[in-house]
UniProtKB/TrEMBL annotation:
The keyword Methyltransferase applies. The keyword Lyase does not apply. It holds the Pfam family Methyltransf_31. Its EC number is 2.1.1.-. Residues 53-181 form the Methyltransferase domain. This is Protein-lysine N-methyltransferase Gasu_10000. It is found in: Cytoplasm. S-adenosyl-L-methionine-dependent protein-lysine N-methyltransferase that methylates elongation factor 1-alpha. One of its GO terms (cellular component) is cytoplasm. Its main location: cytoplasm. InterPro entries: Efm4/METTL10, Methyltranfer_dom, SAM-dependent_MTases_sf. GO terms for molecular function: protein-lysine N-methyltransferase activity.
Length: 207
């Protein structure tokens, strides 16, 4: 199955469950992030350091949008969630209407963003699991994707990425020369075969 079809059918099932049973779908990695709140707090600190007040926020590969609903929209000039899965975006829109949320949603491929997104400069770009998903389709795509991120970021803007596939060192290495490592969130450490690791990495990079 092509990966895009996989996401489409996953979010179609979530959409049906939401319409029929009012069940909210899964926020990726929620079991490690206190339901996303750890990352929200991390973002809040960076936002205050960046502008002292408000900034724009773009989520690439937002999925069902659950994570974005955790943000306080009054703290951002705008929040936009982008995903290439139409069922994910339909679901996010449905939930957003129910919550009376001001968040914007757009169905688009990150490699073919319309001018309304690509002509803008974003203060914070967020990625939770999207880099991982793109990497499954090829390592060259990862380089292309990171260039998209760099081009979209405003000067001094943050790229905040959460990955289950990459270590912090690997993230720093693939972003070398493009963005500078700024800070990371810590998760419980495990040891195996004399090596230390964490189940997840969340790191902020600055342009
Ligand atoms: C692991 S899920 C994470 C979803 C969401 N960020 C979360 O944390 O729950 C990866 C998401 O990336 C999206 N995605 C993958 N490749 C994409 C692309 N080229 N353009 C837009 N979205 C993409 C998928 O549709 C999927 O929603």
């Amino acid at each position: 199955m092509h990966q895009r079809d996989y996401w489409e059918s996953l979010y179609r099932e979530e959409y049906d469950s939401f319409i029929k049973y009012n069940l909210y779908g899964e926020d990726w990695f929620e079991q490690y992030t206190d339901g996303g709140r750890k990352i929200v707090n991390f973002i809040d600190i960076l936002r205050i350091e960046y502008t002292g007040s408000q900034c724009s926020f773009l989520d690439l590969g937002c999925g069902n949008g659950q994570f974005l609903f955790l943000l306080d929209p009054t703290k951002f000039t705008k929040i936009l969630g982008v995903d290439y899965s139409s069922s994910a975006i339909e679901l996010a829109k449905e939930m957003g209407e129910k919550k009376n949320s001001p968040i914007d949603w757009l169905q688009a491929d990150v490699f073919a963003l319309p001018p309304r997104v690509s002509n803008d400069e974003w203060n914070i770009i967020h990625d939770k699991g999207t880099l991982d998903a793109i990497e499954l389709q090829g390592t060259k795509l990862v380089r292309d994707y990171l260039q998209v991120v760099v081009d979209l970021l405003a000067p001094k803007g943050y790229f905040i990425v959460t990955s289950c596939n990459k270590t912090l060192d690997e993230l720093v290495s693939i972003l070398d020369g493009k963005l500078s490592f700024y800070r990371n969130l810590t998760y419980p450490v495990f040891r195996f075969g004399g090596q230390e690791g964490t189940v997840l990495v969340t790191a902020a990079f600055v342009k």
